[in-house]
Amino acid sequence: QVQLVESGGGLVQAGGSLRLSCAASGSIFSISAMAWYRQAPGKQRELVADITSGGSTNYADSVKGRFNISRDNSKNTVYLQMNSLKPEDTAVYYCNQVVLGMDDYWGQGTQVTVSS
Fold first, then answer.
1. Chain Cα centroid distance, residue 35
2. In a designed cystine with 3, which of 25, 46, 95, 108 is the match (CB 3.0 to 4.6 A)?
3. What phi and psi, each to the nearest 5 degrees, are found at residue 54?
4. DSSP label at residue 27
């Protein structure tokens, strides 16, 4: 059973930066696709960024040029570096792991609040 534990959320002023981390248990991290999603109050969960097992990345238009997703397979950890944060980035951020396009796992979420 895979467990994902996010950390790094918090309160930051607009224009500031945060780095989220997601540590995964198990031995299948390196062959998994990883992603960060977010959900703001009253809104649907949306994809922020994802990274394949080979390191290819994809970003939502709203975060391109500001956020960077990366992974460290030696630490079973995926990161989301968030720069130039805006109030509209306020949400609960969730880590997601997909194994071979089949099994799907989620973390418990970490709150990011950006004040104006």
1. 6
2. 25
3. -85, -5
4. S
Residue 97: both structure tokens together: 């792991």
The C-alpha atoms of residue 110 and residue 5 are separated, in whole angstroms, by 9
CA separation for the pair 26, 11 (Å, rounded):
31
**Residue 26: per-residue pLDDT:** 85
pLDDT at 101 over 90: no
Q: Characterize the bridge pairing of strands 91-99 and 110-115.
A: antiparallel
- As a whole number of angstroms, the distance between CA 113 and CA 92 comes to 8
Structure tokens belonging to residue 46: 């949306």
According to DSSP, residue 66 is labeled T
Query: For 91-100, what is each residue's pLDDT tens digit?
Result: 999 999 998 8
* Residue in the block written with tokens 């995926």: 78
E-state strands within 1-116: 4-7, 10-13, 18-24, 32-39, 46-51, 57-59, 67-72, 77-82, 91-99, 103-106, 110-115
